[in-house]
Design goal:
- It is a single chain.
- The protein has helices spanning 19-26, 30-40, 55-62, 66-73, 83-88, 92-101, and strands spanning 16-17, 43-45, 51-54.
- The mean pLDDT is 94.
- It is mostly helical.
- It has one domain: Multidrug-efflux Transporter Regulator, Chain: A, Domain 2 (Orthogonal Bundle).
- Strand 2 and strand 3 (51-54) form a beta hairpin.
- Helix 1 packs across helix 2 (30-40).
- The two termini are 17 Å apart.
- It has a three-stranded antiparallel beta sheet with strand order 1-3-2.
- The longest helix is centred in the middle third of the chain and has 11 residues, at 30-40.
- Helix content is 50%, strand content 9%.
- It has six helices and three strands.
Length: 102
Amino acid sequence: MHSTPCCLIPFDRREGLSLAQAAKIAGKSVDTVRLWCLNHDIGRRVGGGSWVVSRVALTMFLDDDRHALNAYLSGSRSEQDVAPYFHRLGLDSLLRDWARSA
């Protein structure tokens, strides 16, 4: 288990959303989503630049699926509670790519 949350690790831009995109999906303000990133680790500043929000972590957070979000943040991508979110969001190819490179 990682001590630092593993949001968007490994990084792939297909999983990422801008703060504005995430805010639109959530029906909240950009400031609210930024706070969620800080308080719930659903996004991160990539390379010290702009915030990127994980589509997967945002969906888990909005679904109030704490178990899946905790597993995702600990680095799991294939666990039975995490993988369905990748499938649901059409990100199956990420799981396949990561499995091949592991």
